[in-house]
Amino acid sequence: GDSVTQMEGPVTLSEEAFLTINCTYTATGYPSLFWYVQYPGEGLQLLLKATKADDKGSNKGFEATYRKETTSFHLEKGSVQVSDSAVYFCALTPTGNQFYFGTGTSLTVIP
Amino acid sequence: GAVVSQHPSWVICKSGTSVKIECRSLDFQATTMFWYRQFPKQSLMLMATSNEGSKATYEQGVEKDKFLINHASLTLSTLTVTSAHPEDSSFYICSARGGGGLTSTDTQYFGPGTRLTVL
What we know:
Chain A is mostly beta strands.
């Protein structure tokens, strides 16, 4: 069945460091891929998405590229800030009706 | 655009009482809404999928008589936790699937969550 495997955390980085959070998926067909971010005590916010192979989603300095050959959708940011501290979820949907989430990766950025 | 609200954001109740949580899509119509439960430091657990005008589809292991879901309109779904007990204490999050137009039909838009504490 469809699934998402996400890099386990927690991840701790210094401010301005480079961030990568790995995400790989298993799916039949061509799912849409997402990264959501959850700040403490809040719901999930859509960070970025990509709907087909080689698409790059980007938002707020974060990027992720839909790689079908490696079934991956890794999240990257060149220079993290303290305000990026949150939990990040990778997700996929084959049709829009069923969504599959990774386990979440906690990121802490220290000044 | 694509704003989903939840009410209340925080509720404390006594054991045995019922609690209703509302989920509203404020600026779009949502045929499908989802209810999740999240335990501390864990991922989301899908409880049920709610389609407007029809019965909700519950995930395996979720008691439908305990977690009543109603999706009476294209902008409102409610989750009622009946006869709540301390083990029902959790963070409940709803989401709405985009309905087209300015929202994407392959994207879920999440509410801010409701923290339920049962004493």
